[in-house]
Amino acid sequence: MTSSAAHPPSTITIRQATAADYPEIARITVESYLSAGHFDDPDHPYLQVVQQVAERHAAAEILVAERDGVVIGAVTLVRAGNPYADIALENELEFRMLVVDPAAQRSGAGRAMMQEIIRRGRAMDGVDTVSLTTGSNWLAAQALYTHLGFRNVPERDWLVPDTDILLKVYTLAL
Question: I need a surface site. Which of 65, 103, 105, 172 has the fewest CB within 10 A?
C-alpha cells in the first residue's frame, strides 16, 4: 500500500473570509500573480492594491478555499456599482482576483471556488449571469472557465487604461 492510498486527498472547503485570513489572502494573491508571470515586480502598484484585503472586504464579499485548516485560495465577488466591479452589468455577479497558492495549484481549489461562485450566482435574486475578466494570455485559467461553460464575449473585451494589455471578458448564463 502506498502512502497516497493510506492518506486520501483532503477536502477543499469554501467559506467566507475572516480578518485572520487577510495576510494569507494578500500573500497568495501576490505570489500567484508573480509566479504566473503577470507581473515582474512585487512592488508594482496593482500588487500593492490587491494586498489591501481589509479595504476590499469592507466593500465586497471575499471567499477562501481552505484545505486542512490552511487557506490555499481566494476570490472576490461583486455586483454592478461596487467599487471593485470592473465589468459587472446589473444582472451579473462578477468575480475578481481568483487566486490559488502556487504550491496548491492544480489541486482542485480553483474549480471548487468556481463551482461555489456559480452556485451563489444561481441563488441570488436578480442575477442571471456570472462574469469575469482574464488576461488574454492566461490560457490555463481560460481553459477552466471554458470547461465550466463560460464563453468569451469579445465585444466586452477591454484594454487596461494607458497600456496595450488586452483583457478578455467571459460570461456564464445561469
Answer: 103
